[in-house]
Amino acid sequence: MTTIAVLGAGKIGEALLSGLLSGGRSPDELLFTERYEGRAAELTKQYGVRAVDVPTAAVEAEVLVVAVKPQDIDPVLAELAPVVSDRNLVVSLCAGLPTSLYERKLPDSIPVVRVMPNTPMLVGQAMSVISAGKHAKQQHLELVEELLSTVGEVIRVPEAQQDAVTALSGSGPAYFFYLVEAMIDAGILLGIPRNVAEKLIIQSAVGAATMLAETGTHPVILREAVTSPAGTTIMAIRELERHGVRAALLAAIEAARDRSQELGKAHEG
To answer: Name one GO cellular component term (predicted).
Structure first.
């Protein structure tokens, strides 16, 4: 039996706990850390999982999933360093932080796997992207894939691509939420009640995503199928292009990539 400890029970940490339980893990196989006692008690009551401190987690669990904010990583690593050993697998869910940071701060030979998840983990629809540190082996990657498949899809990439992944899929849901928000506002502007506009746009988004996922058809072809000559859609597309929406998205994703790189560089040396 592999015991898993989630270090940091924020939204992503809690979503992972919930997904692991839904995927068949026993509460006895799970631990978590949480610095706020009230929230720790609440999560234990809800999920039946024991709250522990970081050193206890390292001693009792084989897999340590680090799910704190990047700016909170240093004290966690300081607590881990004296007690972690090569029997542990460290799984980092911290945006922008390279495996080399963990390898530098922790004892030699600790296997580390870097993961970029996203918030649809909360509804079991995450896109999690994983990369191996220099001590992580095939069995470590397979174990992480098994764990994360309980909350969505998982793919592997070289770690050099993780900052770009962070910009695309890590931050990606926010871009969709932003567009949906704007489209709902447009519906209201055109005289449609908010609740009706929300229903129209959300279901359109779900349907479009399902078509992309299930048909495997290129998005250009799917868009062209909706775009009749001199019709309503082409007029809308012309306005999107005139206002530089495509260029704005490219620039936004590039800026997110740059910020991910900055987070990693802040912990160099």
So the answer is: cytoplasm
CA separation for the pair 235, 207 (Å, rounded)? 22
Q: What is the DSSP string of 7-61?
A: E--SHHHHHHHHHHHHTT--GGGEEEE-S-HHHHHHHHHHH-PEE--HHHHHHH-
- As for how many domains the chain has, the answer is 2
Q: What is the pLDDT of residue 23?
A: 87
Same-domain check for residues 124 and 253 = no
In a domain, 50, yes or no: yes
- 269, pLDDT greater than 80: no
Q: Please tell me whether 98 is known to bind a ligand.
A: no
Domain assignment present for residue 112? The answer is yes
Number of neighbours of residue 150 by Cβ within 10 angstroms: 19
Residue 194 and residue 91 share a domain:
no
Phi, psi of 24 (to 5 degrees): 110, 0
User: Is the domain of 65 the same as that of 150?
Assistant: yes
Give tens-digit pLDDT for 69-88.
998 999 999 999 999 998 99
First to last CA, the chain: 37
Q: For residue range 182-232, what is the model confidence (pLDDT) as tens digits? A: 999 999 999 999 999 999 999 999 999 999 999 999 999 999 999 999 999
Q: Does residue 174 sit in helix, strand or coil?
A: helix
Q: What pTM did the predictor assign?
A: 0.92
Give me the mean pLDDT over the 32-41 stretch. Answer: 94
Structure tokens at 241: 């292009």
Does 167 fall in a domain? no
163-180 pLDDT, tens per residue? 999 999 999 999 999 999
For residue 69, say whether it is annotated as part of any ligand binding site: yes
- Was 15 annotated as part of a binding site? no
Do residues 182 and 227 share a domain? yes
Residue 151 known to bind ligand: no
